[in-house]
Amino acid sequence: MVAGINELRNRALAHYEAGEYRHSRAAALEGLARDPDDPQLLRLAATSSMELEVDDAADHFRKLADLQPGDALAWQGLGDALLSRGRVADATAAFRRAVELRPDDVATLIDLGHALHAAGQTEEAVSFLTRAVEREPDNLAVLRSLVEIQRHADHAVKALGVARRLLERRPDVIATLDVADLSLDLDRLDQATDAYERLRRIDAEPGHEIYALYGLIAIEIRRRDWRRAVGLAVKAARVDRNRRTTDLLAFVTAQLFGARDRPAPSLEEIDRSLAASRAEHRLLHVEPLSF
Description:
By secondary structure, this protein is mostly helical. Helix content is 77%, strand content 0%. Among the domains are: 1-54; 205-284, no CATH class. α1 packs antiparallel against α2 (21-34) and α6 (88-101) packs antiparallel against α7 (106-118). The model has no long low-confidence stretch (mean pLDDT 92).
């Protein structure tokens, strides 16, 4: 007996809700073969295809949006599908339409902000993410995105402000690391010292103490407090004897006691090494933005 459209809709929906996306997609496509303009079947075909990472998701969402141009979820789904295929400009346009239809929807504002960032339109991306935060001040995911995007845009002061706000709400390693690194970037050395000292206490991953020590050494180098820098470098050498630590110890020792027979690295080399250390530490904790 051939299944009717209603039965196929119900079957596709039941499979989708059960997480059986392949079966849901098959039932939806069977129904669309008979009624290509059925909105519910189009939505189920689109969403199940997205879950399965099948390329035709965008086609189904596009048709649904054309049939129901006032459906914000259809435009949002279209944006997601297009972005997954690398069509950033088209995705941004779809998300813009979704925001026009639902200007206060936080998820849609976040999607548009991420798409704009991927398109290189950082200032506008920040404005939409800021709108999302205004509506959900405790949305940690948006706050983290704002910190990262503003860092990339060289808005260190704004990024630090958001990072401190995030630290108040979620005092974890990532938030502390953001405050530490951004404070150092801005030469707010007392704040940076407090944050790196806190990192030493809360980053319990094996071998991670070295990164906080490198941060503290960088601060003392900027202060030209060579005695303090040597003491920290000796501590670093006790927990980690890699080339970076050896070079750091040689450099700060030379500043305090004068050059020895073995030439010490230059300040420029040490700055590059410490910057690489900070980047390594971030990669160990922070997922890169991927939109």
